[in-house]
Amino acid sequence: MINVSLLNTAKPLVAPPKPVKQPVVNAVQSRSPQVVKSKSITSGKVIPKSDSNRIPSKVTPKSDSNRIPSKITPKADKNRAPSKAIPKTDRKHAATGASPKTTKKRIVKLRKKNISPKRRYHAKRRLIPMSRNITEKSIEAISNQEGYDSGYREGLLAGEERILEEHIPNDLIIPDITAREAMAAGVQVLRNRGIPLLDAAGVYHELEKALQDKQPYAFIRLGDGELLTMAQEKVLTIEEIKRAGSFLPYAGVHLPNLTARDELASCLRLASLIGVPLSRHPHFQPLLFAVLRAHGIDYQGLRFTTSTMNYALHELGLLLRLLQGRKILVIGDVAVQLSQVLIEQGLEVSGIVTPVNGFSDVHRVVAEASTYDYDIALIAAGVPAIPIAVHLAGIGGKVTFDFGHLANRMAGLVHPERNGMK
């Protein structure tokens, strides 16, 4: 029989859980990076501690190597603007008393931390030194140009005045005279010693008449390349010519070449018309007459025009008029390109001879060109153009034209720029 009094006094088999009191932990003193919550005394609800009047502490939590760091992050405040990982200026001023200028420098420094040191180093290396070098080079170039211009003006003035002073008699002075005026007056007195040059209209009429009458006519032109070649061991030494004529291999002459020298001298005596330079540079007009005297050539018996007459005829429209209705033979390294341009302009090209491999290739070129039927030959072959033009005119009774670098210009090709390109 069960005793009822024992049932009333018996303890339950499962005891109800006792409430666990949460300890209040200060966020500053906590070792955990987790967000700490405190229990409200009045309501018993857990709310995050906040103090709007308190300056945020700068104490950073210490790391625990045996503990896995928490991934809990504080909730964002809806009324607060998104942070840019830069402390608020107002709070920093209140905490440290730093000036706005100091704060701005710190902000810029913090932003720069997003760029790796390597990138910043290369950026500085790329921009600062290069800009400095470019500036220094520009200043140096300007300074050199100004120095050259100043020296040129002073030298020119000193030279003119010194020459004028030497020629003015000691028993008089001439007011307001310049060296230019004196030279102009002196040249007028010397005109009787001059050699006439055929102008563009005269050259066109002579070429036209030779084409109509089917007479041989060789129009050649002289530049510094031809004159230096003819000056070998006559006016200048080989070493002097090599220093002055480094371009000669491009023009088809490899020094020394005395055969080319003598061949050019023979061609000058046979040419119908010779283009000569107007430049007073030592390797142009002064060298021209020195070479003619050295080879025993009487220049009074030669007929001259300017060495740039090929360009003058083209610019005045006389070249196209001369070539219309005629069969044209094109000779030279740019013969293919030039012939295409001529055909596009409605002209008839009857043949092409290319390339011309220097002075040693003259006889082969002449033999190949003689197989074509043509009225006029345009030759762009450097120094070898002179013997090619003279031989074709003499052998076939044709009109030949030393075309020069006008072929490059008409074909739209770039050629080396230097004094003496003709």
From TrEMBL:
Region described as Disordered: spans on this chain: 28-105
InterPro entries the UniProt entry points to: GT-D-like, GT-D-like_firm
Superkingdom as given in the UniProt entry: Bacteria
GT-D fold-like domain mapped to chain residues: 199-410
A Pfam family recorded for this sequence: GT-D-like
Residue ranges with Polar residues bias: 29-43
Record NCBIfam families: GT-D_rel (NF040628)
Protein's name according to its UniProt entry: GT-D fold-like domain-containing protein
Biological classification of the source: Bacteria, Bacillati, Bacillota, Bacilli, Bacillales
